[in-house]
């Protein structure tokens, strides 16, 4: 039976359909039902970047924007499972990590730093080949019980219908913009400095920054005082690390990074 506060939250989610407030209201409803410390929403396409939609992270939030969305999502067991045919449903990270063979580097170098001790994922299929992923995190080692997972699974038809109604054509290719300062010049400068941080070497980051500004190999070589062949090698490696196959695809990755960048995140 639905409690009055829960019913009020559901009504607010329905009222928010079609508006920018929908992800935030959906998160409030889900957090009340699931009992988690933090929540993250992203969407995936099988041949595209992870698209940021919403988060309420309090600990090491910069890892999301500087590393996860800059290509590290490809090592996430959920993302890997989707590429292998994962179906709509509710899954624990522990189960998927075992099935997918979670990368030791992902576990030690990234996931541990987030502070999450337990994670549950809700997978919803949107239009075409796009998937909505809602991650529930707990900062204490208190597993999501089978009963909690079953309760969320029972709500999946309603949640799927709401999300497909809000995103009838999918979420699109551009990220949502999280709350933050609106100084665009500062935001662009920080985005250029941080693009690929945690994924690229210092020189690869420099080359990536110049590529998204429209410079070609020869111009980059002249500016960095290195050979054009060296630029090509850096370019090939950074494309592979960021999951891009062209300068246009790299710019698309940067555009989503720019939208989600927060100048308050430390640069070091």
TrEMBL record:
Family matches, as Pfam families: GerE
Keywords assigned: DNA-binding, Transcription, Transcription regulation
CDD domains: LuxR_C_like
Extent of the signal sequence: none
Stored InterPro entries: Sig_transdc_resp-reg_C-effctor (IPR016032), Tscrpt_reg_LuxR_C (IPR000792), WH-like_DNA-bd_sf (IPR036388)
SMART domains found in the cross-reference section: HTH_LUXR
Domain HTH luxR-type: 193-258
The protein's name in its UniProt record: Regulatory LuxR family protein
Organism, scientific name: Oceanimonas baumannii
């Amino acid at each position: 039976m639905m409690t009055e506060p829960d019913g009020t939250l559901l009504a607010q989610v329905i009222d928010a359909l079609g508006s920018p407030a929908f992800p935030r209201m959906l998160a409030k409803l889900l957090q009340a039902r699931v009992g988690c410390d933090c929540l993250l929403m992203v969407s995936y396409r099988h041949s595209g970047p992870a698209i940021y939609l919403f988060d309420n992270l309090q600990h090491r939030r910069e890892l999301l924007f500087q590393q996860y969305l800059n290509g590290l999502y490809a090592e996430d067991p959920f993302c890997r499972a989707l590429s292998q045919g994962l179906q709509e449903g509710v899954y624990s990270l522990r189960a998927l990590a075992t099935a997918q063979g979670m990368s030791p580097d992902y576990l030690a170098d990234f996931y541990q730093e987030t502070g999450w001790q337990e994670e549950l994922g809700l997978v919803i299929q949107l239009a075409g080949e796009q998937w909505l992923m809602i991650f529930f995190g707990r900062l204490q080692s208190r597993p999501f019980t089978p009963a909690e997972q079953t309760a969320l699974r029972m709500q999946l038809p309603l949640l799927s219908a709401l999300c497909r109604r809000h995103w009838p054509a999918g979420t699109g290719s551009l990220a949502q913009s999280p709350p933050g300062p609106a100084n665009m010049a500062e935001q662009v400068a920080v985005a250029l400095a941080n693009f690929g941080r945690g994924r690229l070497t210092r020189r690869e980051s420099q080359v990536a920054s110049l590529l998204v500004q429209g410079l070609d190999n020869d111009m980059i070589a002249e500016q960095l005082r290195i050979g054009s062949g060296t630029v090509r090698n850096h370019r090939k490696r950074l494309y592979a690390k960021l999951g891009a196959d062209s300068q246009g695809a790299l710019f698309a990755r940067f555009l989503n990074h720019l939208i989600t960048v927060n100048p308050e995140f430390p640069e070091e």
